[in-house]
Amino acid sequence: MSTLVQEISVAPVACCTPVGAPGITPEEAATLASVFKALADPHRVRIVNLLANAEEPVCVCDFMPLLGLSQATVSFHLKKLLAVGLLEREQRGTWAYYSLHRAGLAGLRDVFTTKEA
Amino acid sequence: MSTLVQEISVAPVACCTPVGAPGITPEEAATLASVFKALADPHRVRIVNLLANAEEPVCVCDFMPLLGLSQATVSFHLKKLLAVGLLEREQRGTWAYYSLHRAGLAGLRDVFTTKEA
DNA sequence: CCCCTCGATCGACATCTATCGATACAGAGT
DNA sequence: ACTCTGTATCGATAGATGTCGATCGAGGGG
Fold it and tell me: HEC string of chain B?
């Protein structure tokens, strides 16, 4: 894997096909799975949770004590969530602030909406 | 890891704390993550999708050609989904039939419901 | 009974993932 | 310019995960 481009932005979450849609393709399944994969880690779930309850964007340096992880690891997780469109990044001088992409989260809710009952 | 018991039934999906709930604990985050982990594979997403559109329970032997996977691998994936309460298993003679635990899926939808807008 | 079929489990392997320390890079302040 | 400080990236490593062939156990039919 080259070090240049690396698949940032796998999928704008909101676009995902619902799991109940009739006959999704293997590609659509893979896209959906990539979003779930981003949430398939306790620390990343906590990051989303923290941001969901934050009034303002949160700085990377704030996550480190909250999660008890090194700075490198926090960046690693944030990148994963950013890649699938669940987070938004804003640069303020030297600092990087992350916030929840609310529309993305809401889109995930629709993914689990099946026609019946 | 011993070969005896292996953490069947991690979490009855419906019970999961919403990602937006104020200040979830690391344990709640881990529970949530385990459910997402079950969905974090393209083949498992397809299994859920196939079952969502099936009128009747589906036999293990039917998944093999549909997914292009060996019998062992299909069993492996079904077990993961079963463990988090997304599927239900029914034994009919020699055959094992799997169906979607609809309430579980619906519960996941609520997980993404945040209070505001 | 014996054998055949279906499904779960085991053993092995290649790949992916989470984690950290170290390094590189970019802004800000002096 | 030089130096700090905050982030992202790299390199390495331990552990988890997906895959399959082979084996095991349970039913059902001859």
Answer: CCCCCCCCCCCCHHHCCCCCCCCCCHHHHHHHHHHHHHHCCHHHHHHHHHHHCCCCCEEHHHHHHHHCCCHHHHHHHHHHHHHCCCEEEEEECCEEEEEECHHHHHHHHHHCCCCCC
